[in-house]
């Protein structure tokens, strides 16, 4: 009975104290604020002492978890390092074998490539054209037909060259036609742009086995671009139409490299220029009678 009365009295006392504090707060807000700050200053060290063991336990638990995570990461890195060492050995062996075979075949390597890094200063992409303007021109060594890459990925080629700027025709433009091949099967095709974000593969052999996820690279046919430049992956094969998802989209292009691979193509520029400038010879006239 006494315990019940004490609980009720304590509850009633808390209510009365709360009401009193509310009235004091309304009457003198500065006093209440000072009391609140004083209580906070007194209680803060006590709370810190109380929570110090809990904080230490939490830090110890986090340390154990981090240690377990580091141990797992260390094991994974060891496995990856072992695999990389294996592939490094294989790559060195293949490189030595490749050099030996090239020496036996009197192989003529491709000329060394040179490049110019340029910034994209204009994007004329739209429903009817996919091209870009860069801030490098003929004074920087840019020439029509050179490849334009982002990292190691081909994104287009130079079509117009000015003194200080040049225009890049992207692989997705309707006027873009590029000899390519499916890297896994070596099946050759023409990558044709149609002003969509995913160009299509045309003139592919009917017996070619192409599936989504296959990598598409340049084939080197025509002698304009070297073989093996990455372009994208096959994204869909539907109703005989094969679409390619480029590795780099035009919205991601800020800086590009204009690369001169030293390849003259099917018809060298100097020969074609000479052929264009050549006039038909005058028909020989016979002796007058």
From TrEMBL:
Q: List the InterPro entries.
A: Cell/Rod_1, Cell/Rod_MreC_2, MreC, MreC_beta-barrel_core
Q: One Gene Ontology cellular component annotation?
A: plasma membrane
Q: Which UniProt keywords apply?
A: Cell shape
Domain Rod shape-determining protein MreC beta-barrel core: where? 120-259
One of the protein's GO biological processes: regulation of cell shape
The family annotation for this protein states: Belongs to the MreC family.
Which PANTHER family does this UniProt record tie to the protein?
CELL SHAPE-DETERMINING PROTEIN MREC (PTHR34138)
Q: Which NCBIfam families match?
A: mreC, PRK13922.12-1
This protein's name: Cell shape-determining protein MreC
Gene that encodes the chain: mreC_6
